[in-house]
Design brief:
Layout: H1 6-19, H2 24-43, H3 47-66, H4 72-110, H5 127-143, H6 152-160, H7 173-181, H8 190-221, H9 229-259, H10 278-282, H11 287-301, H12 308-326, H13 330-346, H14 350-354, H15 360-382, H16 386-399, H17 405-431, H18 442-458
């Protein structure tokens, strides 16, 4: 039941119709049932994992509230929550990867061939998202930064709230739980903001991401003899706009439908391709994950408090684990290492880059340079294997910088489909307001929505694709 399916919108119409006539407590119960139905539509068996995580963390938080703050007993309860949540994640997401990698290492170093023991289990949709969300809750209760929920069903809704359940944003308890526990009153502007987010989200997903996927998949699946180096470059750029349109689209729609129910989710993106440095990028891209890694991994490791080299170590470890969070594969490990190297390489120049407020050419040049560095990283993220990464690099830089019809078709598609959206984001960036379109004259909004509707009707993709981040 993806956001770009008719089935989801039929489901949502039924839910919102009943939601409007219920009191607060009934609304919460309805949303909890709807959330479990929504997730169960993929595979009902994995509802047990969400229920287990919910019960364990609710119980642990109650015990943490009774134990002396940061005492040995409190640490043990917190460790139980971390062990259960990360244990589930490790079994379903990483077990097969580590066992096959260890078997490969034995064969490479000692010539010993071992058949790895694998579970071959299906990866539950969105398991990394709700695992990190529940982990942040128990850690915040342990730190004394949030009060534990007193109602199991309300806490269950916090864990399983269906708009953000399978691909975020990863909401902190201090933001989302009070909106669930307390009665929600109608707020002026929620419908307008929600409509804007849903329209732009559907445009980004269907018009941009799904059409870019057709180009990107063609390039990455083509044999080396059928495409050239320029085609490979275009395929990488197509993926850059695919993943942005895909993930921004999901996050925007999730925020929009939540606003229609009186719940305000955090913004997960802020024009990330206009970033001029790695730290700027991670304050704009997947903000809920980058802030989670900062608060629960980078700072506990020591942050920047231990001098230059320890700071670099902490950055590398944080991004390495951030890469592994995205997927159990060596391509994601390398992507995380690459992002860590970018953070370390740019760190001495961050202050100078931030101070470049004057000079349009300098800002454009630094933005263009960093955008291309991000795209190099997307090659690791998209490639099926490290050998495919090597094929792309060698063809682009050394052996076959030629093109086929794919390059021309891909470039024209990027300019035609993604170009207007980038121009719109330039306008948003200059206004420094993600919701600026909701504050202009209704005629301009009507024109923008009419254009989006026209593109949605005319440029249906050859094949609809699942949201990329569902696999994480």
């Amino acid at each position: 039941m993806a956001f770009n399916s008719y089935l989801f919108w039929l489901f949502f119409v039924v839910v919102i119709g009943i939601y409007r006539i219920l009191p607060h407590r009934g609304q919460n119960r309805l949303l909890l049932v709807a959330s479990y139905v929504f997730y169960g539509a993929w595979d009902a068996r994995f509802l047990l994992l969400i229920a287990l995580s919910t019960v364990v963390d609710f119980f642990v938080a109650q015990q943490l509230a009774k134990a002396p703050r940061k005492s040995r007993l409190a640490r043990r309860w917190c460790a139980l929550s971390i062990t259960v949540n990360l244990g589930i994640l490790a079994v379903f997401k990483y077990f097969d990867f580590f066992t096959t990698s260890f078997a490969g290492l034995l064969e490479a170093l000692f010539g010993y061939h071992a058949d790895p023991f694998t579970l071959n289990v299906i990866l539950p949709v969105g398991i990394s998202f709700y695992t990190f969300q529940t982990l942040s809750y128990t850690i915040d209760v342990y730190r004394g930064q949030t009060r534990p929920a007193t109602n199991l069903l309300d806490f269950g809704l916090y864990v399983a709230f269906f708009p953000q359940l399978v691909a975020g944003p990863i909401e902190r308890s201090h933001r989302l739980l009070p909106q669930i526990i307390n009665p929600r009153k109608p707020r002026g502007g929620d419908f307008t903001k929600g409509l804007y987010l849903i329209v732009t989200g559907l445009f980004a997903k269907i018009v941009i991401a799904d059409n870019m996927a057709f180009i990107c998949n063609g390039v990455f699946a083509a044999p080396a003899s059928e495409v050239g180096g320029i085609d490979r470059v275009v395929g990488i750029y197509a993926f850059a706009f695919q993943i942005y349109g895909d993930f921004y689209g999901y996050s925007a729609i999730a925020r929009g439908i939540s606003l229609w129910m009186g719940i305000d989710l955090m913004a997960n993106f802020r024009m990330p391709y206009f970033a001029r440095s790695p730290s700027d990028f991670w304050q704009r891209w997947h903000i809920s994950l980058s802030s989670w890694l900062r608060d629960y991994l980078y700072i506990p490791l020591g942050g920047n408090r231990g001098g230059k080299w320890l700071t670099y170590r902490n950055l590398m470890l944080t991004m390495l684990l951030g890469g592994l969070w995205h997927g159990a594969g060596w391509t994601f490990v390398c992507w995380g290492l690459y992002q860590g190297l970018l953070l370390c390489a740019y760190r001495p120049f961050e202050k100078r880059i931030r101070e470049q407020e004057s000079g349009v050419l300098r800002r454009v040049a630094s933005t263009f340079l960093f955008f291309n560095l991000v795209c190099i990283g997307w090659l690791f993220f998209r490639a099926e294997s490290l050998s495919q990464v090597w094929v792309f690099f060698t063809e682009i830089f050394f052996t076959d910088f030629t093109s086929t019809f794919l390059a021309n078709y891909g470039l024209r598609s990027i300019l035609y489909l993604a170009g207007p959206f980038l121009l719109f984001e330039i306008w948003l960036e200059r206004r420094r307001d993600l919701l600026a379109l909701t504050k202009v004259h209704w005629g301009w909004r009507a024109a923008a929505y009419s254009y989006a509707l026209f593109m949605l009707l005319v440029h249906q993709p050859h094949r609809s694709s699942e949201f990329i981040y569902f696999q994480f």
